Amino acid sequence: MKKDRSWLLLAPMYAFTLVFVLGPVIYMAAVSLAHHTAAGFTWQLSLENFRKMADPVYLQCFRQSLLLAFLTTVICVGVGYPFGYIMARLSPRGKRAMMLLIMIPFWTSSLIRLYGWQILLQARGPLNGALLALGIVSKPVKILYTYPAVLIGMVYALLPFMQLAVYNSVEKLDWTLVEAARDLGAGPVRAFLTVTLKLTLPGLMSGVILTFVPSMGLFFISDLLGGNKIVLVGSLIQDQLTRGSNWPFAAALALVLAVITTLLLALYRRVTHTAELEVMF
Amino acid sequence: MSAEPLLELCSVYKSYDQPVLRGIDLTVRAGEFVTLLGPSGCGKTTILRIIAGLLAPDRGQVRLGGRDITAAPPEKRDVNTVFQSYALFPHMTVAQNVAYALKLRGVDRRQIDARVTRMLALVQMTGSEKKKPDQLSGGQRQRIAIARALIAEPKVLLLDEPLGALDLQLRRQMQLELKKLQQELGTSFVYVTHDQEEAINMSDRIVVLRAGRIEQQGTPDEIYDRPRTGYVATFIGSANLLAGQCDGRGLAAHPAGAMVCPADLPAGPVTLAVRGENILLHTQAPQGPSLAGRVASKRFLGGQLRVEVALTGGDRVVLLRQGIRLEAETGSPVWLSWPASAAVAVQTEGEAPAGEAGR
């Protein structure tokens, strides 16, 4: 038998991953242990950056980020799963049309789309106008620069990833299996829970990762729609990197954020028994 | 086998873009093995799906044990299906797959375990409980699919070309096993296939379908010996069809000579179905009526010699013989004859089958 040399083909990819993915992470971890000075930082081992995080101000910041990411993900699952499921059951034409509708917003910068949300949500904006005209509210409600506004923005930005992940997974489902479940005595709900949902969990898992992970780090949405009142870890890191020019503290924050995210995803996988991820696109 | 009808289909119609079923009347008795036989597109799988409740008929009625179940959802019917693709749940073990129907019915765990063990023993898959479907071979998956469908003891088991994906040897073995299983359990089987060999070997009754209608139904012997139409005669065991002019006294004129036909056949145009294995080949003109022609080709296939004879006037006849030797060379003149019992008068393609209600 000939020696298997297929790894040679993969070697460039491994090299790339090592240098450009693992490299920066190691660098970041190293910087997080460095000492902050007025001029930048010195390579002097210290845990001051991690100790600093125990401050209630920063803990609150982490709590807020986690809660927002959690709520965003839950809403994305609640809206995205039914959407992806229904989309996968459309005719080929309907699928193409839906796909186009999901993709079109991506042709514009997300920053510009968020400015669009600012206009929609402001006190004299179209949303309040509609609510007033319908008599649902008697005077304009403050939506912009509140927590719900940030949540709306987050869901808006991340929902497509959930929709497409679920769509992909449901699309590949063998519907004979659902028929078999019905044939063996399962009602529509039981068949969905025991077969459809179980077999599309890997897709849902990809969707959860694609929404939860970014929502832990996204900072410009809370900046643009939440004013300065809601400070997320993402905003904090950005602030430390630019205005505070405290790289070691920014690195420490980013590292802790990454560890928390990884642990939560590991927990989720344990709970849902999804061993493997669905490969998308 | 009781005479009581267990499952009844009454003038069932179904159309998609085109009509698929055009008035199916079918009765299955308790303990009966009924095969729906026909080429792809004849509507046999559609019938099965309508019985299972996975498809609603446009018109007509489905009755099970005297109860109208036409509108009942699949989970409310006392029938189970063995799907063509097996449709085993990939995320469950073999034991979980087989137990599925009982678990839904809330049977307690100890009893489920006992029945799963018994079912797996019945299909000779003991010891595979913990395996996942993707660790099984095609034949093994087949057995698990059968066990899963039988565990809830349905009144009728529906099988959609269950042996289609298996190789020939395994298919023949599974034919025997399935038949044995059916006889042991006494469950009615409705079996869909396009394989005439399967149909003949396993069935109590064969229902030959053609373009959404029942062409003929009967025991394998009846279908084989007394095909009513040319379609049935050529589909089961591939008979030769020969058109001629009957004289009403047991002889029919053909461009290549004369053919023996049933003595009670009235005078007039007739199409005879004659099976290749019943035809005698002569190298010299025989005493009685015969057809003249030349040997066009000979091939040894499946343990038989298949001789094609081009008759004077253009018709072609295929005859089958045991052994490998043939006394006539390719191209040499031969004469064909058969005993009177070997020829059956059939209706041909253009004519409407007898007893058909209006279209």
Characterization of this structure:
The complex is a heterodimer of chains A (281) and B (359). With 281 residues, chain A is mainly alpha-helical. Chain A has twelve helices and two strands, in the order H-E-E-H-H-H-H-H-H-H-H-H-H-H. Chain A has helices at residues 7-32, 48-52, 56-88, 92-103, 110-121, 126-133, 147-171, 175-183, 188-217, 220-225, 233-241, 247-272; strands at 35-37, 40-42. In chain A, helix 1 packs across helix 12 (247-272), helix 3 (56-88) runs parallel beside helix 7 and helix 7 packs across helix 9 (188-217). The mean pLDDT of chain A is 88. Chain B has helices at residues 44-52, 94-104, 109-122, 138-150, 168-185, 196-202, 220-225, 230-235, and strands spanning 5-15, 19-29, 33-37, 59-64, 67-68, 79-82, 156-160, 188-193, 205-210, 213-218, 240-246, 251-254, 257-260, 268-274, 280-282, 291-301, 304-311, 316-322, 333-337, 343-345.
Spell out the key features of this protein.
heterodimer, A: 281 residues, mainly alpha, two-stranded antiparallel ribbon, 12 helices, 2 strands, 2% strand, globular, B: 359 residues, alpha+beta, six-stranded mixed beta sheet, disordered C terminus
What is the succession of H and E elements of chain A?
HEEHHHHHHHHHHH
Largest interface: A-B, 17 and 22 residues
From the alpha carbons, calculate the radius of gyration of chain A and give it in angstroms.
23 Å
- Let me know the average pLDDT of chain A: 88
Overall form of chain B = elongated
Query: Major sheet of chain A: size, sense and barrel closure?
Result: 2 strands, antiparallel
**Number of helices, counting only DSSP H or I runs of 4 residues or more of chain A:** 12
Derived structural class of chain B: alpha+beta
- Give the neighbour order of strands across the main sheet of chain B: 6-7-8-3-9-10
The shape of chain A, in one word, is: globular
Helix count, DSSP H or I runs of 4 or more residues of chain B: 8
**Would you identify the regions of chain B where 5 or more consecutive residues have pLDDT less than 50?**
351-359
> How many strand units of chain A?
2
Give the helix/strand class of chain A. Answer: mainly alpha
The total count of strands of chain B amounts to: 20
Counting copies of identical and different chains, the oligomeric state is heterodimer
Determine the N-to-C terminus distance of chain A: 35 Å
Gyration radius from CA atoms of chain B, angstroms = 24 Å
Helix content of chain A: over 70%
Uncertain runs of chain A are none
